């Protein structure tokens, strides 16, 4: 028993070392990075974990970081230009009574942005309890008026009635959700009455990059707008046509039908 346990420990330490070496290689070689992202998108689409991805991202987010780490809720308080860019496409199609759901809301900066614009029918789902607790002090008015649920998005979304929300959105969240939960794309389509809006990094090496457009289209949605967000980002289209590696940080708007 002891020998088996020791062997298991040695094998997992070696596997980690190998994974680290491979990730350094991929990071520093544009061609390998390109090929890796291609493979990751295929595996992710099939519900499988890409080889360089960490298997415990959900646990990491649930803990929400130690002192100084970028995973802490403090990182997500500041309102930045991503919020303006993300919402300006959908605002004309919403009214102040619209019901809006955010997956992975963290401390709630996006919900607060919408709340300041007059939206009061807001719900957030967030896996990290610390972030939700912090939203009560950082954004007390928004938190007081909204429904903030602590839990994992793929599990919580199943409890929501069909066509409950006019808009469902995520900002840098789907890439953190393991491909074994790919049913979440169908669930997002199910609970949305009109629109789904995402800002996701499809070139994220250590998370779970996927072809989000393809997955939402498979779930019955139609892409109506797509634009790159981050400065310095260049398009790295799916299917990859260019022999270069660019990092996508793409805003994509999907509609349930053409009427939005
Ligand atoms: C990169 S942060 C973005 C936070 C927020 N969307 C924003 O832009 O301010 C990713 C967020 O997704 C949350 N998250 C990751 N996996 C999740 C899951 N399975 N269910 C719910 N939230 C999750 C994390 O806790 C974190 O708050």
Please outline the helices and strands.
Blueprint: H1 2-27, H2 30-45, H3 57-63, H4 81-87, E1 100-103, H5 109-116, E2 122-126, H6 129-138, H7 140-145, E3 147-150, H8 153-156, E4 165-171, H9 183-191, E5 192-201, H10 212-218, E6 222-228, E7 249-255
The structure holds S-adenosylmethionine.
S-adenosylmethionine (SAM) binds near residues 104 and 128.
Question: What is the strand arrangement across the widest sheet?
Answer: 3-2-1-4-5-7-6
Number of domains: 1
Regarding CATH, which class?
Answer: Alpha Beta
By helix and strand content, what is the structural category?
alpha/beta
Helical content, roughly? 25-40%
- Tell me the number of strands: 7
Mean pLDDT: 88
Domain Methyltransferase type: 101-194
Organism: candidate division WOR-1 bacterium RIFOXYC12_FULL_54_18
InterPro entries: Methyltransf_11, SAM-dependent_MTases_sf
GO molecular function, one term: S-adenosylmethionine-dependent methyltransferase activity
